[in-house]
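Human:
Care to share another protein and its fold?

Assistant:
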Amino acid sequence: MTSNIQNVGLLTLRAGVGGVLLAHGVQKLFGWLGGAGLTGTAAAFEQMGFRPGRQSAVAAGLGEAGGGALIVLGLFTPAAGAAAAGTMIPAAAVHAPSGFFATGGGYEYPALLGLSAAVLALTGPGDWSLDARLGHGLNPPWMVAGTLLASAAASALVLQRRRKARTAQNPAPAAPAGGNGPAPDGATMPSPETTQ
């Protein structure tokens, strides 16, 4: 049995994390709250190497909006938290070349959202949730490990496909015989950071 203060904390965390995820998801799916909508998000995803862009945008939008809404409600909490956490892994990877801090475009923000969602999947929603009202029949203990592992595997697959798409789009120019330095056409060889 969870204490009242713990239930307040879990409800507040669920409302905050789930609400932010939900807001980002509806931006992607519907263009609400100043978002680009599905068409704009799909085009951006294509440019970032997530192909096909429309399917990737739908998956990300559903992971955020659906996962966020379920987290707020405390319903299917392990699956919802895992889906949201898995959606944040590729988002963090996109920002990783810019470092950690969000002020410099880094991955701090998606990493924090993903970690918070994963923690909620692990801890459960607390007593003030629909899962608790339903006797936790929709969030059995096996679901925590199963959904987190499945989400991590899906994210790894998405990142592998992105890496292949980006490599095919921007093949590395052949290095001159002397190693580093200018490319044969006189252009400077790109650094590893610019080709990832």
Observations:
- The chain is about 65% helix and 0% strand.
- Residues 23 and 137 are 28 Å apart (CA to CA).
- The helical segments are 4-30, 37-48, 53-73, 77-95, 108-123, 130-133, 141-169, 192-195.
